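Students often ask why we bother encoding 3D structure as a string. The short answer is that it lets us treat folding as translation between two languages. Here is a chain of 338 residues written in the first language.
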Amino acid sequence: MQLGIVGLGRMGGNIARRLMKAGHETVVYDHNAQTVAQLANEHAKPARTLDDLVRQLMRPRAIWVMLPAGGATESTIGALAGLVETGDILIDGGNTFFKDDVRRAKMLKAKGIHYVDVGTSGGIWGPERGYCLMIGGDKQIVDHLDPIFDALAPGAGEIARTPHREERDPRAEKGYIHAGESGAGHFVKMIHNGIEYGLMQAYAEGFDILRGRMHENLPEDERFDLNLPDIAEVWRRGSVISSWLLDLTAIALAQSPELEHFEGYVQDSGEGRWTVNAAVEEAVPATVITAALYARFASRIQHDFAYRLLSAMRNQFGGHVETPIVKGTAEGEPQGPK
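And here it is in the second language, the structure alphabet:
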């Protein structure tokens, strides 16, 4: 199958690579010509402009936009809407706010253009592990794109089957689902990221308590000099709290037990705020996720070991680098729309 891809950053370029490895054809564009040239050397078809990308695609065209949420995605989809034709498909695979998807889908439908939103999880490990995909849009269009989603998803792998799923959608066991109509994919991904905030905060706090057991204010016979890399490693094996996030925590601690190269200034990319807002709209208590979001705000005022570990986890799964906006305050915009 043929797919146009706009945005060749950490995830967009690797999505192109995984698709080409599976035998799909990609036409790629990015404002960075060097990045386009690199993908061309790996057998992608390069495009010089959005218009050039559209011209190279066969109808019905399918174009995957993989850009930061907000202005970059909004302007690109607006530009593409003026270039594609009736029956073509625009896909937003970034972390867009789900209400923007609902609005865009209505706007594009009036022009005869199909819109699909894809919550994409996998980060910098996607080429090896595959991407967990949460998809929103019309069933007919999502089914048409199934070869693309199937190639990007991890597949069933060696994970044991969940009992009593015999009559349910088999795509979930491969790592992708059609969550519902436009906006549903990004809504599910938004909640996924909110849960991620809570899990990361729990690990960070737990390891901070372990590390603090040598504090001078404690009775000497109750102090323990605990080996955090070894504890992270043993918890990976048979423990009820084992997870991929714990795997990444173990990697980070093995590399640097004190995490000296992290300051502990923890960004939030927007989904945590949106998750808390959704909880307020629905009157659903979200105490853990809300507290985890506020902890990230606090990290911008004080930096202790727990916050350094949060930064280390974000770096491990997504390649995120600490980028303080206003040092010494809890203020700062998330990396995405409000």
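Translate back mentally: Confidence is low (pLDDT under 50) at residues 325-338. Keep this in mind for the problem set.
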